[in-house]
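Quick question, first post here. What does this chain look like in 3D?
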Amino acid sequence: MAFFLETLLGGLMAGMLYSLVALGFVLIYKASGVFNFAQGAMVLFAALAMARFAEWIPAWTGLSSPVLANVLAFMVAGAIMFVVAWLIERLALRHLVNQEGTTLLMATLGISYFLDGIGQTLFGSTIYKIDIGMPKDPIFVLDTVFPGGILINKEDLYAALIAALLVTGLSLFFQKTATGRALRAVADDHQAAQSIGIPLNRIWVIVWCVAGVVALVAGMIWGSKLGVQFSLTTVALRALPVVILGGLTSVPGAIIGGLIIGVGEKLSEVFLGPYVGGGIEIWFAYVLALAFLMFRPQGLFGEKIIDRV
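> Answer (accepted):
Ran it through. Tokens below.
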């Protein structure tokens, strides 16, 4: 029982990190109706910016406190992501309003390759480290209930808590604020939203800025765990099944989908892996996503598309 709970908690914590990356996809889709293939590049670009400025700021200013250097690096990287979001809207999306979804999709692919290239040019292409002070030592809990207790990785626990706080804040933002309701209106119908006075260009800037902050937090956490390297863009691929499972337009769906994928990967690898030779954790999420595409393509919480003739 203790081993099962340990695996379950590990899956929940991994799932919350998947949800954080998937949230970036959902935010862009809700505002523009296009699947943002640049999200992985945004995660990498933000992580590179924070890692490099965490190195450069102490060298430039003589700061001896790594905590203060990380805080300043986070603020600078956040400002950079805001500028990136503004430039994306001003130079690309503004000229593609009311275009076909395929056109917007290709635009995000171009943005993705551009961010990959400019990130390598500005920040370098080697592996960098982000040390935000999260403890890496494991802890044992419930040792009075189960013999030996349940092993939990502190770094995974802290990362999951950070992701949960951000996801909760964004959910409240969408549901309780006027800007969040405007974002949902734009997602439903661009032209109708414009006709009632909602400024589409400003809304797109806001949502890309929010997605940039989400990418920065995701890049910070994954960079701390895996190191900042260009393979970090593949983390976004792990979030694709989460988006399909939860629904492209649902923030709660991104959360639930991430938790289901995280738990399913861990449990299947541990309990089914020995019988099939292992490796289930690699393909489990994609097989589950394929099943949903076949039988429920809108996902668990997505809006069902009804064509009227």
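The chain has a mean pLDDT of 79.
The chain is about 70% helix and 5% strand.
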